[in-house]
Automatic annotation (TrEMBL):
<dbReference type="Pfam" id="PF05197">
    <property type="entry name" value="TRIC"/>
</dbReference>
<keyword id="KW-0633">Potassium transport</keyword>
<comment type="subunit">
    <text>Homotrimer; conformation seems to be controled by binding to diacylglycerol (DAG).</text>
</comment>
<keyword id="KW-0812">Transmembrane</keyword>
<feature type="transmembrane region" description="Helical">
    <location>
        <begin position="94"/>
        <end position="118"/>
    </location>
</feature>
<comment type="similarity">
    <text>Belongs to the TMEM38 family.</text>
</comment>
<keyword id="KW-0813">Transport</keyword>
<keyword id="KW-0631">Potassium channel</keyword>
<dbReference type="GO" id="GO:0042802">
    <property type="term" value="F:identical protein binding"/>
</dbReference>
<keyword id="KW-0630">Potassium</keyword>
<keyword id="KW-0406">Ion transport</keyword>
<feature type="transmembrane region" description="Helical">
    <location>
        <begin position="49"/>
        <end position="74"/>
    </location>
</feature>
<keyword id="KW-1133">Transmembrane helix</keyword>
<feature type="transmembrane region" description="Helical">
    <location>
        <begin position="20"/>
        <end position="37"/>
    </location>
</feature>
<dbReference type="InterPro" id="IPR007866">
    <property type="entry name" value="TRIC_channel"/>
</dbReference>
<keyword id="KW-0472">Membrane</keyword>
<dbReference type="GO" id="GO:0005789">
    <property type="term" value="C:endoplasmic reticulum membrane"/>
</dbReference>
Length: 316
């Protein structure tokens, strides 16, 4: 990318691309993920009642992306847990966050300056996970852009996408919290990253991998820091999302006009007959079964009018 070369950022992008995530960045990912689990409603009570369920939920928070991508690629689900060092590190983090004496680890990690640094490091790992998922899918399905996006999205935001299953482990069932129904910011930014890296891998986006990694990482870290400092949880793409939604997905409903006509006809009929009911009063209507034939229809109409007149008299 010529712009990055002019700004002398090419070496920085290479250094970022060659940076190792283990152990410091992985540790930051585990800490922030388990902190998020502890702050879930009822999670602390579960840790006292069933430490095993709490530990399993923590592992889903830490390795949910790898588990979900393994399921989608028909690979062993337990493969992500084969990294004994990573599991051990995550388990130690889980124990210290939930069971450290005097709650020292959680109290220190929850401080804004330290949490800001840890969250920024976690966003760096997001870039590697999304790129790793896209590259893994590209190795098996070179011409499938959709598969690459799906695997990159799953690997980068799997913890959120399988949140309903994780909640079941803790005995909670909240289907309305499904990420597909209402996406959180991490899920959205991961999806955007998966699309960008998939386009870059298929040469639709004329950028080098390390350049895109630098741009995406800087954006996610800066935006996450801004959201934490300002206390905002809104997406920076809210305006664009609203414009696209109103343009493409809010068509005129044919039932709206029909409903309006029915309401207008009912009001006109009430004003004509002088039987408008007072505010807060509900009229009772007598159902009339359908009758075949002209005389039957006329008789049903007369019975309906008599019932309306009787109701009006009762109200008055």
């Amino acid at each position: 990318m010529d712009l990055l070369g002019l700004l002398h950022l090419d070496e920085l992008s290479h250094g970022l691309a060659n940076m190792s995530m283990f152990p410091f960045f992985d540790m930051a990912h585990y800490i922030v993920s388990i902190l998020a689990l502890r702050e879930q409603p009822g999670a602390l009570e579960v840790s006292r009642v069933s430490p095993l369920a709490c530990w399993f939920s923590s592992m889903l928070f830490c390795f949910g992306g790898a588990v979900l991508s393994a399921v989608m690629l028909a690979e062993p689900v337990v493969a992500p847990l084969s990294n004994s060092t990573g599991v051990l590190l995550a388990s130690i983090t889980w124990y210290l966050v939930f069971y450290c004496p005097m709650d020292l680890v959680y109290s220190c990690a929850a401080l804004l300056p330290l949490r800001l640094v840890l969250s920024g490091m976690k966003e760096v790992t997001r870039t590697w996970k999304v790129l790793g998922g896209v590259a893994q899918a590209h190795g098996k399905y070179k011409d499938s852009l959709l598969v690459m996006i799906a695997i990159g999205w799953a690997k980068g935001a799997g913890g959120g996408l399988i949140s309903n299953f994780e909640q079941l482990v803790r005995g909670v069932w909240k289907p309305e919290t499904n990420e597909l129904l209402k996406m959180s910011y991490p899920t959205k930014i991961t999806l955007i990253g998966a699309v960008l890296f998939a386009l870059q891998q298929t040469h639709y986006l004329p950028l080098r991998t390390h350049h895109l990694m630098l741009v995406y990482t800087v954006f996610t870290v800066v935006n996450k820091s801004r959201m934490m400092l300002t206390g905002s949880s809104g997406s920076p793409f809210a305006v664009i999302e609203l414009a696209i939604y109103k343009t493409l997905f809010t068509g005129h409903s044919p039932y709206a006009a029909l409903t309006g006509e029915v309401k207008k006809a009912c009001l006109d009929r009430g004003e004509t007959n002088g039987t408008a009911s007072p505010a807060g009063t509900k009229e009772k209507t007598t159902p009339v079964p359908p009758v075949k034939g002209g005389r039957g229809s006329l008789k049903a109409k007369e019975e309906s009018e008599d019932a309306d007149a009787t109701n009006c008299k009762k109200i008055n």
